[in-house]
Design brief:
Blueprint (H helix, E strand, L loop, with lengths): L5 H7 L1 H9 L3 H14 L8 E5 L5 H9 L4 E5 L3 H7 L8 E2 L12 E7 L10 H11 E9 L6 E2 L10 E2 L2 H8 L3 E9 L11 E8 L1
Parallel strand pairs: 1-2, 1-4, 2-3, 4-5
Antiparallel strand pairs: 5-9, 6-7, 8-9
Length: 206
C-alpha cells in the first residue's frame, strides 16, 4: 500500500498497531455507548452506517448495541486493526485502505468519523471532507478535538501528527447542504463515562 502523506504511513505502521492495545475494553465501550446515546439523540431511522478510520470497531460495537441490525461498514488503514474489525462487522464490509484512496460506491444513513481528522495532514482535509459528504445519505457525525483556529500539537513525542481546528465548521462551509442538528462536549475527567475531550457535531443533509 502506497501513501500520499507521512501521517498515513504512521498509522498504517507499528504506531497504529500499538494504538490497538491502548484503545479497547469494556470501559471504553461503556463510554462510547454513553457518548453515542447522547450525540445521536436527534437522529432518526439509522439503518446503515460507515465509519472512516474505525480501528478495531469500538465505536461500531456501541452503534450496533444502540441500533440492532444496523448495516455497518468501515474504512481502516492499519492491516491488523482491519483484521480485528472483521470480527465486529462482516469482513466484506471492511475496507483496509487509506481514506484518501477510498471512493464511496453508495451512501449510508450515518457517516461517522471520530478521533481521525485530527491525525490527517491538513493539506488533504478538503479531499476527506468531500469523501465524507459523498458517503453521507442523511447524517454526518464528526467527533474530534475542537479549536476555533487551526493549531498543531505534539502527539506522544511526535510532531505533525495531531491537528486541532473547527472541522465541522469547515465541512459545512464547503458543503452548505449540511446543516447542524446537535453538538456536545465529552470530558476526559467525566467520573463515569470519560472521552478524550472531544466535541461531537451531528449534521444532516438538506
Amino acid at each position: 500500500m502506497s501513501f500520499k502523506t507521512e501521517q498515513e504511513a504512521f498509522w498504517a505502521g507499528d504506531f497504529g498497531t500499538e494504538y490497538i492495545q491502548r484503545n479497547q475494553g469494556d470501559a471504553l465501550l461503556a463510554s462510547n455507548l454513553d457518548f453515542f446515546g447522547k450525540a445521536l439523540r436527534q437522529a432518526r431511522s439509522i439503518h446503515s452506517c460507515i465509519e472512516f478510520g474505525a480501528n478495531i470497531g469500538m465505536n461500531l460495537k456501541a452503534l450496533k448495541l444502540l441500533h440492532p441490525g444496523i448495516d455497518a461498514h468501515a474504512i481502516e488503514i492499519n492491516a491488523e486493526a482491519a483484521k480485528q474489525l472483521g470480527e465486529v462487522i462482516p469482513s466484506a464490509n471492511v475496507h483496509n485502505t487509506s481514506i484518501l484512496d477510498f471512493t464511496p460506491a453508495r451512501q449510508w444513513d450515518l457517516t461517522l468519523i471520530k478521533g481521525v481528522l485530527i491525525h490527517i495532514n491538513p493539506e488533504v482535509l478538503p479531499q476527506v471532507y468531500d469523501k465524507l459528504f459523498a458517503a453521507c445519505g442523511r447524517y454526518l457525525m464528526v467527533a474530534e478535538y475542537y479549536n476555533p483556529a487551526p493549531v498543531a500539537s505534539p502527539y506522544r513525542g511526535h510532531s505533525d501528527r495531531l491537528f486541532k481546528r473547527d472541522f465541522a465548521g469547515e465541512i459545512m462551509d464547503r458543503h452548505p447542504q449540511l446543516q447542524l442538528v446537535d453538538y456536545g462536549f465529552a470530558y476526559r475527567r467525566d467520573p463515569n463515562f470519560p472521552q478524550d475531550d472531544i466535541t461531537g457535531f451531528l449534521m444532516e443533509t438538506r
